[in-house]
Amino acid sequence: MKLIIKQACITDPLSSHHGTIQDILIENGNIREIAPNISENADQVFDQKGVQASPGWVDIFSNFADPGYEFKETLETGAAAAAAGGFTDVFLIPDTQPVIDNKSQVEFIRNRNGSLPVTIHAIGAITKNLDGRHLAEMYDMKNSGAVAFSDGLHPVQSSGVLVKALQYIKAFNGVLIQIPDDTSISPNGLIHEGIISTQLGLPGKPMMSEELIIARDIKLARYTGSRIHFTGVTSPKSIEYIRRGKDSGIDISCSVTPYHLFFSDDALVDYDTNLKVYPPLRPKTDVSQLKQALLEGTIECIASHHMPHEYDSKILEFENAKYGMTGLETSYAVVQTLFPDLSTEKIYALFGGNARRIFNLDPCTIEKGSVASLTLFNTDAQWEFDLSQSASKSKNSAFNKKIFTGRALGSFTKGKLHLIH
Hints:
Urease, subunit C, domain 1; alpha/beta; eight-stranded mixed sheet
């Protein structure tokens, strides 16, 4: 099959065509030609004004709930949502039933890849059954294709266990992913501890619970010389710790969710359960500092934290609702809307380039002779997100009917063009 992508502005710092407008000819899944004008006959032509092309985007923290919770999401519906957001690769957290804590479960995920419009990568559990006590078979999972290791929504609380895990993964240059949260501090907290929690009469959770884990884990990473990635970072003090750790040579990195950049805790005044997320939303002043950390480069990745929930898990009292919202379809649009002057180079770094480097993914570039894995997007497209049209099986998003500037148009991966309608 031949496909020509017409007049795409290429964003790929590794490509000799970076920053130029070119036609891209793809044949049998490989890039055969890149030139200002290709007139060759093709089976399919993609021609949209203002199209940008970058190597495929990567989401590093999503829950597809399969196996075990297919009533929330399946691998098929989660992959469809990822493709609708422009992603070609997605990391899946191990919070399934059974837990992804052995090589058989990693192979189950890997073997389901063939029919999906994106490539899914298993994140192996750090501890067996996410119990936080006994190390899982990380070496075997790595050999079976695990891309990183995390206890997902159950961050490791024991310093002794985590230091052993950091030492263990050093043998194969692995990476641990932690949501930074000391769960022993205000374990019943539902939202950020502050003025809004007091006004709403809801138990709060202070940012200290995040900052303590960040500080501890940085010290453990320094001690072991291993690699750790913090996801869902929300505290300016956490950012300061991470910045200082980087400056001292520790191999640490971090990511933020789009909704932590878009919403602040004052959006909770209506008790919208779609805004009950983990970690909780923070005050506007802290959100502003998060945005600054993204612009300056301390925050290296955007992670959707796509957490699908069925209707019954969200339509009930705030304290009983499940944590999380879907996010793959709106991730890029949120960031582009919030940062309209963001360069396309920075967009690709946040949505793929840095993730590929941090997690040792295979190189991906837009160059003649390379395998085609592309994300197509438009920085100026205005559109409204209609949750009823979501590709995800679950509809728990606080972005319904929001107007965005910037949209993923489609992707090319596994030899096929996947367009967003």
